[in-house]
Amino acid sequence: MRRRVHLAVGALCGVLCVAGILAYAADLRADVDQERAEALARYGGEQVEILVATEDVAVGDMLDTTNAEKRLWLSELVPDDAISDHAEIAALPATSPIYAGEVVVRHRFDEREEVALQVPDGKCAISVPSKAVTAVGGSLRPGSKVDVYSVSGSSTDLLASRVLVLSTSTTSVDEETNRKSDVTWVTLALEPSMVEEVIAASQKSELYFSLPSESLAASGGSKAASSSGDSRTAAKEDVSGSANDEAKPPDSGGSVKEAASSSENRKEGAKEEGNDE
């Protein structure tokens, strides 16, 4: 009996707690609605749709539907250079931090603004020489993730996959001509263990940058292609080795010995037939 009473009291307390939470949430919503109504009354009821960050965006990151969304905003409170659509900043990395809940404005993507290079934790930033034809036609941008190949003569080796591009010479603008410069260098974020190898490769060979699609990068396509290339090379070596083995002339010494032995056997057979007669 006492246990039932305790259970009933516990259930009643739980119901009261839930009711209290719901009432508190309703009060908060009512306060927000009241403040919004007051703001509308104070600044006017006209609203416009603008882009607002839904999470913090670091320097070098790009805005998309995962970290920014369209929201209605009071027109009187919208900044002059506010952005209303993702297409306006497509493929442009942020040049200054953007915080969650902040209206996205154009000067956050000003390519002329000089900012300190942001190196991810655990990585090292190095710059290597490049040119348009080896850097995907000069289309590499900060935030791109590339595969790095070393090309020397007839040899091509994959050095690293999914390497983050921190900066390129195309992000700088000539102040006199107001035009972007050609690609002459690319700054990469590498694992410390890869720095020495990549620097050595940039001095002894030419570096090519491949820009895989997101689906190909997710499936490890570059590594698979590398493995396939290694298999084809090994197969060619095996075929070449077999052809060389077949092309080798027979051992002349062994053939002479076999011929002499066969002749002696025929002579002994003839003698035995004569003795039998």
From TrEMBL:
<protein>
    <submittedName>
        <fullName>Flp pilus assembly protein CpaB</fullName>
    </submittedName>
</protein>
<keyword id="KW-0732">Signal</keyword>
<feature type="domain" description="SAF">
    <location>
        <begin position="48"/>
        <end position="110"/>
    </location>
</feature>
<feature type="compositionally biased region" description="Basic and acidic residues">
    <location>
        <begin position="233"/>
        <end position="249"/>
    </location>
</feature>
<dbReference type="InterPro" id="IPR013974">
    <property type="entry name" value="SAF"/>
</dbReference>
<dbReference type="Pfam" id="PF16976">
    <property type="entry name" value="RcpC"/>
</dbReference>
<dbReference type="InterPro" id="IPR017592">
    <property type="entry name" value="Pilus_assmbl_Flp-typ_CpaB"/>
</dbReference>
<feature type="compositionally biased region" description="Basic and acidic residues">
    <location>
        <begin position="264"/>
        <end position="277"/>
    </location>
</feature>
<feature type="signal peptide">
    <location>
        <begin position="1"/>
        <end position="25"/>
    </location>
</feature>
<feature type="region of interest" description="Disordered">
    <location>
        <begin position="219"/>
        <end position="277"/>
    </location>
</feature>
<feature type="compositionally biased region" description="Low complexity">
    <location>
        <begin position="219"/>
        <end position="231"/>
    </location>
</feature>
<dbReference type="InterPro" id="IPR031571">
    <property type="entry name" value="RcpC_dom"/>
</dbReference>
